[in-house]
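Teaching assistant here, posting this on the class forum so everyone can see the example we discussed in section. The complex has two components, and the goal was to see what a joint structure prediction looks like when all of them are supplied at once.
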Amino acid sequence: MIRKRLIVLFLAPASLIYGGLFLLPTLSTFYFSLFNWSGFGQDMTYVGLNNYVRLFNDTVFWLSLRNTLAILFVGGFFVFGLAFLYTVLITSGIWGKKFFRLVFFLPNVVSVVALAGMWAYIYNPRSGLINTTLSTIGLDSMAKTLWTSPNNIFWAMLAALVWVFTGFFLILLMAGVDKIPTDTYEAADLEGASLWQKFWFITVPMLWDVMTISFVIWMINAIKMFEFPYAFGFLQVPQQLYTLGIYLYIMGFGQRDPIYQLGYATAIGVVMLVLTFVLIVVMRRLLRREQLEF
Amino acid sequence: MRKTVFAFGLGTALSALSFGALAQDQVKLVYWSLWNEPEPGANVVKSLIADYQAAHPGVTIEAVWNGRQNQTTVRNALASGTPIDIMDADMDGLKGGLAGAGELLPWTDDLAGASPDGTGTFADLFYPTLIDMSANDSVSYQIPYMLYAYNILYNAKLFRDAGVTSAPEDWDDFVAALEKVKATGVNAIAIESDIAFYNVKWFNYLLERIAGPDFLLKAVEDKTGETWRDPAVRKALDMELDLWTRGLVPEESRGYQWPAAQQTVAFGETAAELVGSWLPVELADTVDEGFEWGAMRFPAVKGGLGDINHVEVNAFSFGVLKGTKHEAEARDFIKFVVSAPSQQRFADEAKIGVANKSVAWAPEVATARQSLDEASLILPENHGIKALYPDYSTNVYEALHNQAFLGLITPEDYIEQMVSRTKEFWANR
């Protein structure tokens, strides 16, 4: 009994902080989404579900949702594709495992604004790294590609985003791979298994839990994606780069334009929350497997 | 001994009393600023604060440097009960934000009162129509102090080298002048592809020159959206797109992200850019010594209803928060900042335009000032829609224009989308 009380006592401060600083604001978000509110003063007008009806009829909301889903699925495909590829290569026994791990992780310790600025220079049509390199190796027609033109800017941003995030998930996956007993691979080597077979029949099943949690982390990151595309847009984020997070910010905080529709912005926030919840539940059901013990 | 103790006690008590009275008289004004601390404008504000404090020993001013999204930061701070006396922001932003929400104190009586320099009223200090333009329902809640004119800013030497010695006043002459510049081997016009609010100025001006200053607001407020089918819209679009077709705007501009294009102006590779008169300050560290800036008014269009002397501007304004406990001191400090000597310091040291019309601007922006002196009408950002319908201005007007301007959608698509998105805007409102 005393032990139980002690547990409650020890949990109480954290629970109160979590409840007060996270759960309560989350619940109040639902409440504020039912109002028209500029955020100035206390004057709020109850509008019921009108903000949600408006979202349904809002072209920019659908554009932002489409971009967010493109980041989630297309970006996710490349992030995990590359992370798996590098995991296999780096853990295959090559020299400098720690060095490569550090190199791939490095973008994660640099400020997002600095990274976005660096990519703006890489993509610069005249003096950028990509076009000057292409020009140097004689690919003059490709060197004229305008990577940040309105048609290409989203994909240019996504490529940079994949570069940033791959290292993070590489570290997670490699940590999982390091836990797999080496004798499993040695046995596979004795049986003459190829690199691919070892990856597919040993690494993937034994990495399942790490993969699942990595997918969940990516999903949450992708749905709330804000910082990188916002910094990439810099002075005025082009609509081609709008994600749900950016649209929420524009409508609620307005950059320099006095939009200030905080009620509507919180409705976008609620949609993001519901979307995250639904997708995580669906994904966890799809990825549910019997746990391997090793 | 007893006398000594008494005298000491009395002295201590009097000191405490006088200190208490002093503390009571001491006023601390809290000013939340749109400047970033290292900016030249912030340095001028700092020096003005120091001077004001020296002249008013009972007043101290605490500045918080928040940058251009200051109003949003102020909003959040007010919601948490932070006391703020003075703040500043874009004029249109304030009009649609704190002023519109009734969070600022009115200036009606002060503006009608005597000017600090004793000539005319306080309102007379400012460019004509500037105060009216900033008002909400005819009541002024803000005092403008910085002023930027949207002109075609250009490298005067490059134009001279091309044989263009006077600023063209008509669109055809303007295009002909740009062709001459292009023929000398430099690019004529700089465009930042990602800055929609720069690019939309081409369309704003052309629409104004063709259909008059009221057309844009009329088109936005037409709930059917059909005004966007007016031939003036198509004509304005065709005229600005013609700049691309003629190669006056280099093709690679479609991929320029700010500040890539303006850097080409600084390096003398491009001759001109349609932008606010802040450009010479932004490029001050990049241009060669002796770089000769010019600013021309946006040219007229033959047979159009607009006028070459209608100039679009952007301004920064001060507001006094209604929750201030030091209203008199806050107003007094703002009057000090907009007085001629203070404004002259902004013009000389930060080289930016000011709202006080008696002040001479720095040589780099002197021609921009001339366009304001000659202006018969000063127009707010996006002809008022930025303040009145900011979400439309950002999400519909500027965004779709940028797509059309950069060739992502055709002029026909643009018009159809403007019609449908205007209808959508009003249906959702």
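For the discussion questions: Strands of chain A lie at 35-36, 45-46. The first helix of chain A runs from residue 2 to 32. Think about how each of these relates to the inputs above.
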